[in-house]
Structure formats: C-alpha cells, structure tokens
Amino acid sequence: MDRESTAIENSQKQIGNKTNSRFQFAHWQFFNDKDELWNTQTHSVSKLEPQVARLLTLLITQQGQVITKHMLNSQLWPDTIVEANSLYQLLTKLRKELQDSAKNPLYIKTIPKKGYMFLPEVSLIDIPERPFPNTSNVATAEVLSQQAKTTLSSQIQQLLTKKRCWALTLSTGACFSAIAFFSSTPDDISTPHYEREDITYELGVEFNVTAHAQYDLLAYIEQFNVLKITDKTGKYQHTRQFDTRIAHPTWHPDKKQLAFWQYQGDKCILHVINDEAKTLHSSVPIPCYLIRPPVWQSDNELVLTIIEKTGHNAYLYRIEQQQLVKIPLPKATDEKYVGAIRAWEEQIYYLITDTEHNSRLVSLDGKVHMTWDFPVWLFNFDPDKQSIVSNDDSAHHNLIGKLRNGQTYPIFATSQGMFSNLSIDQRGDIYTAAETWQVNIRDQDNLPIFSSSSNDFLPVTNNLGETVFMSRRTGQCEIYLHSNNQLKQLSFHKGYELVSFLAWDPQLSKILSNRDKNLVLYDREDVIVSFDSQHNKMPTQFGWLDQQNIWSSDTQFVHTFNLDGNLLSRTKFASDFLTFDSERQNWIVLHGNALHLSQSLANFDVHKQPLIELPEHAVHMIKNPRLVNGELYWQSTWSKTDIIWKLPLSAPNKLTKIRQEPLIWHYDITPDGALRVAKMESVEADIKRITPQLPST
C-alpha cells in the first residue's frame, strides 16, 4: 500500500471512530452518516448521491493535501473499471452542490497533472444532545452552527483515546453511537451503542438468517438451496439440501420448530422441520410469485405473506388441516401490504405502505400502532426493548429502532451493500445477513459500462449503440444515458417513485419511461414532458405506436396518447404481456399461454393470428418484452431461477432459451443481436450479530 493510500485509510479509520461524523466548513455542514449537505445561510439541505458524498468525505479527510485522480478512483470504485470521465462527473455534481467554480474555486481546487485539494478549514461538530427527527427540521442547522467546534486534526487526536465502535467491514460507515432520546416518556430506553461481529466467515452466500428467541439455535440459507442449523456462534449442527431454492426460515417462538419456504416451479411449498432438520410437515404447493417470511401465530397456525399476480396477500395457514384462508387486511385497494410480524402481547401486526410511500403498522381491527414517513421493507420486533427495528429512509438502509411512543434510536449504519433480513432474540441481539454485490452492464468486450450496488438497471440499447438505463444508486430511480463513452444523468427527481420501463422511439431521438403513474419523455439532455397516464394503477407495459404516438397498459386497459400527453383512446384489454411492433404495425399479445399477432386490440378476436403455445416456465412471471430485428425477447422465472427467451417472429417454432441462471436483474440486446445481461456479480453475504452494549456507569 502506497503512502497516499495509507494516509487516506488512516483518516478514514479515525473518522470511523467518531460515529455520525458531521463536518463544518465555511457556511456548509456535511453529515456523512446521512449523505446530507446543509447550507446554514439558506437553511436548506441537499441529499447527496452516495458516491458524491463519499467523494466529499475523501476530500474533507485530506483537507489541504493533494489527492490524486488515481487514488480517488481506487477509493470510489475499488476493483472496478469505470469510464475516464466518471470522476469528473462526480466532481461536477459536487461543485454544483457547493456552488463552487472550477476556475475560481472556493472549495475544490484542481492541481494540474496532479489531482485535487480541498481548500477550506474543516472542523468536526459535536453531536447535539437531542438528534433531529428528520431532514425537514431546518432549525437543526441553526443549532448546530452555534455549537463549539475544534479543528479536524485535533479532534481526531482526541478520538484516538476514546473507545472505538466496531467498523462495519463492508463499508466506510461506522456504527451509530448512543445518543439522547426523542422523548422522556416512561417508555424511553437507555439507548445502547451496538457492536458487530461475524457469525459466518466462509466464502459464499449466507442469508435469510433466523435466531430462536429462547434457545441457542440459528438457521440460515447457504448458496440458495442449503439450510444450515447452528448455534448462535455459528457452530454447525445440521444441514438439509434441496433441489430448488429455499427461503425465509423462521423459528417457532417457544418450540424447536422451523418453518421455511421452497420454490418449486410456479408454486411455493411451506415446510416445518425440527432442530435436527427432520421434516414435520410440508404443505401442498401454493401458487406464488414471491414470498416473505412466515410468522407463527400459534402451534398450528402461521400467517403467510404471498406475492401473487394480484399483489401482496396475507393468509392464515392451519398446519393440521392444510387450510389456507385469505386475511382481510385493513387497507385501501391502492395501498400495498408488505408483511407481518409477531410483536407486542404476542399478537400479529401487518405493515401497510400507502400511495405517498408512508408506512404504518396495524392490527387486524385497523388500529394503527406505529407509523413511518418513508417506505419500510425490512422490519422485526425486538422483545427486549419492545421496539420495531427497521430500515431508515436513507439510500443505504441503515438500521433504526422505534418505540410505540414514537421515540427512535439509531442502531447501525452502512454506506455500501445492505442488510437483507432481520431476526432478534429475547436478549435484543440482532442477527442479520449483510449483503454486498455489484451489478454490471457489460459491453461487447465484457467490460462494465456501468457498475453499481443498485439492482434496477433495465438497459435498452439503440441501433446507434447508445444505452439508456435506470439505477437506484442515488436512493431514487434515475435515468442515465451512456453515449460516446460518456455517462449522463437525464432525470433528477427526488422521492421514491418507481421506473418500470424504457423505450427508444422509432427514429431514436426520444426516450419513453414512466414515473409512478406518469409517462415521461426525454431527449438526450433532459425531460421534455411528463403527463398522467390516466390509469388507475401504475402502468406496467408501454411503447411507441409511431414517431408521434405512444401507448401504455396497466394489464387491464390500454391508453394511447400523442406527444403532448393528450389521451387519444382508451381500450379495455386484459393482458399481462403486450408489446407493439411499430415497423409491422402489429400487436403481440399473450392470452393464456398462447402468443398472438393482431392489428387491433378493439377487435382482437377478429384479427388475431396464433403464433405459438408457450410452455408454463416461459410465461410464469413473464416481463420485459424486447423486439429487436424481428425477434421477440422476454424474461420469465421458474423455481426462482431467471430465464431469458428468444422467439423469431418469422419462425415461431424456434423458441430458444438463451440464458438461465439466478440473479439476472435485466437484459439488453445490442444492435448486432448480442445479449447483454445486467447481472448481480461479486456477491458476498455473511451472517452478522449486532449486539447492544449499554454504557457502563
């Protein structure tokens, strides 16, 4: 390791010892635990992209020193090939946020042929006695700006003498320190700090961990189809291997029984075994797309969360009777059910997310027991603190706890990868799988044109070789264009909106996408127009009719529009798989398992021409149709394995399975017909224990 790398690493470690590091320079305050940049003059806050925030942290920790381009690249994109202008783009974004000028810099000075220097003096801000509840509290900036500050170098020296938090090895983030409460009600807890330790170390993928509340038992999935039962130190006890993927083991709260799922074709089987991995019960196969962890309601009953074609549904499953009963959830039709947990008073509670992306925990009678002003997807109950542990609202999905009185407290932070599930025993020890990965869109030389820890790419390449795609690396779904070896961000929206499709127009001058229920048109620079699709739910299929008209479908109705957003037609037509061949002016429609061609949807039965009857595994969870050079491509999923198909329209009997493997997020077809896959690579997942450490008195 060279001297520059050593200096940066030492600074990073020293900063890591100060949890929730918050820096002051000029009239700016940077909270690197939240990727937030505060302007104390305007009382405004910006949520930085993770890589922009990491760049600012690197510059701050080397204040007054020249840091080379090579070192910045190696720190920002370790072991990754990136475009030559990637660093320049990050610097441009950071300078824009700081209102800085490259020619007359106040903050970031370019040192020709050497690198960059961060100019202003930097100091660390002491953590306030009461943390601010959310980023909308602009008064916090005023409070913080008045606090006493010391220079960064002297503060770091003081930190070296203090007890260290365990650094989270998969990121530059560090664990949160203990801080004051949000309220002083009798339900408040003495907030501990948490320390992390590894339970598994071996190479491979270990995830979906569950800890028994009472007994010294742990279970987790290894390499997708192996169930491991160990003690809570990771010492091996029993193993079961299956021929298809398994998921989401959950211990009975009192007995040494374990329930878990197995994917089998287009269905899921619920298994119950004992602590010696011997089968006690297996359900009949249940139709499913995806599933979430089962929840034990009693010795004979479990609450099951099953993602089906119609959405997320909750069921009560009775083991002895093998009976499945749908649970009527207290939610509106346009709200999303996420999952269930067993919590206070050993009762079952259900997590609901509304159309504004707020979450609430409810009982079956509709009573609201807890709310969050962001989407919660990772959650479990801490019986020791009587709190709900969940993801926070950051792009990094840090762990936080929340009591019923509204008090929240930080648990653990990470700036890379994510915690994929949670299990908490009676002591309050949190067991989780910490996963990191890289998703690459690879070019014809198998080099990544874009790499990220995001999993939402959906790349679409036109005949000029330009690729438009989406990514959640900023925490929101954004649209990017890769053209002439340069990467450009086209959308700059904030919020939790979804992007489910992208398509070039026939003349390759515009790009069509969606954002929630809106349709959005882009050119190569920015958004041209955005308008309401007028569907009752988010459109899932869409495309171009010709250069001046577009269509969209929510699987029940097909709407057509001109480019000004004026609705031209509304046709009731149900189909889960629909696309339009603008060159031949034909619809391609899946009805049942059969593909058809038709010139009209309004008179489909009159005009339809059968193409091919597809096998079951080609239509299960079918999505993402692409029509390239007269050949139809799409994705399906079977036994939780991803499959990419190709069908020449001129020879529909030549259906081909061109790729089959797990963890394919999306795919792309190049102008010459070559397959590109946006695939999860370099996957690492280990079981961690995060243990509360109450401060000594």
Write the layout of secondary structure elements.
Elements: H1 3-16, E1 22-25, E2 28-31, E3 36-39, E4 44-47, H2 50-61, E5 66-68, H3 69-76, H4 86-98, E6 108-111, E7 115-118, E8 123-125, H5 139-145, E9 149-151, H6 152-159, E10 193-198, E11 206-211, E12 218-222, E13 226-230, E14 236-241, E15 246-251, E16 257-264, E17 267-274, E18 279-282, E19 286-287, E20 290-291, E21 295-296, E22 301-308, E23 311-318, E24 323-326, E25 336-342, E26 348-353, E27 359-362, E28 368-372, E29 379-382, E30 387-391, E31 399-402, E32 408-412, E33 418-424, E34 430-442, E35 448-452, E36 460-461, E37 467-471, E38 478-483, E39 486-489, E40 502-504, E41 511-515, E42 518-522, E43 527-532, E44 541-544, E45 549-553, E46 557-562, E47 567-572, E48 578-581, E49 586-591, E50 594-598, H7 604-607, E51 609-613, H8 616-619, E52 623-628, E53 631-638, E54 641-648, E55 656-661, E56 664-669, E57 675-693
Antiparallel strand pairs: 1-2, 1-8, 2-3, 3-4, 5-7, 6-7, 8-9, 10-57, 11-12, 12-13, 13-14, 15-16, 16-17, 17-18, 17-19, 20-22, 21-22, 22-23, 23-24, 25-26, 26-27, 27-28, 29-30, 30-31, 31-32, 33-34, 34-35, 34-57, 36-37, 37-38, 38-39, 40-41, 41-42, 42-43, 44-45, 45-46, 46-47, 48-49, 49-50, 50-51, ...
